[in-house]
Design goal:
Order of helices and strands: HHHHHHHHHHHH
Radius of gyration: 19 Å
Number of strands: 0
Distance between the termini: 35 Å
Structural class: mainly alpha
Largest sheet: none
Amino acid sequence: MSPMAKTPGGFRAALLIGWAVLAVAGVLYARQKGIPTWTALPVLAAFLVAYPFYLVPAFPSMRERWTGYRLPLFLVLGAVAPYLIACLGTVPFQWMSLLRLAAFAAGLSLWFRVLPANPLTDVLFLATVMAIIVGKYFDAIYPTAPTKDLREGLILLAHLALNQTAVMSLLLVRRVPDPGYSFLPTRAEWRIGALHFIYFCAAGVPLAALLHATHLKNPAPLWAIIGTFFGFLWVGSLAEEFFFRGILQQWLQDWTGKRTAALLLTSALFGLAHLPFRGFPNWRWAAVVAVLGFFCGRARNQAGSIRAGVVTHALVVTTWRAFFT
């Protein structure tokens, strides 16, 4: 792990840099999309408030401060505070939306305090997280917004809250070994992740072409490619690699005692989790994603950290979004 991720100073640096980048990116995005300032500012403020909550799980020295009874309070606040700020001018306040946010955060944070730690409750925890995502639980929290882009941004905030809640609950209450949940891969992890990206291209791209799972398109602009890569490196890919390779694959390895079997089974489940993509059941896409899962899991095994798999994952998604449709 990068030394920066171990210190409060590293957290403060990441916080200040992130706030500056988010502020500039938010203003530029609103101007590009023609979103009125009075509707964009509450959403931008909501992201700025949500950001430190999202940072904490990746900094061990910071997340350990929230052990014990303070953890549910921290996680509920992290879920509801951005919503309350967004209600200051972008979306109308609804008590049911507030309760839905507080309910999932409280429920997941108390899960392993109420239920015994065993394979059944472990699987049910992950299944609940997946059900919240697949069931589009957060769509009802933001039924309306001035624009589609603002609504998608607000729903993303709720997903970030789900991620930080589940990660903190597993690391601080369930006390699973940290699989490498942080934002900065080491040099070795970059190398291993990049190599497995190449391996995937050699196997996954021909498979996708054979199955007609995707098609070439005109390349995306450079700024979009860069933004996509870091967005997935620090959000989307990090979350999926934590849950599938960091938690599920390790649990399956512990339960079966077989590393290869755990890798193959996790890869298959990763593919099945993507069956709803662009219409259920999308078996072609599930097959390609299962291959991606195999190489991400293999990178994780070789590096001893999910960060290598996160690099592979982010590179693959960025390449797909930049050149394929």
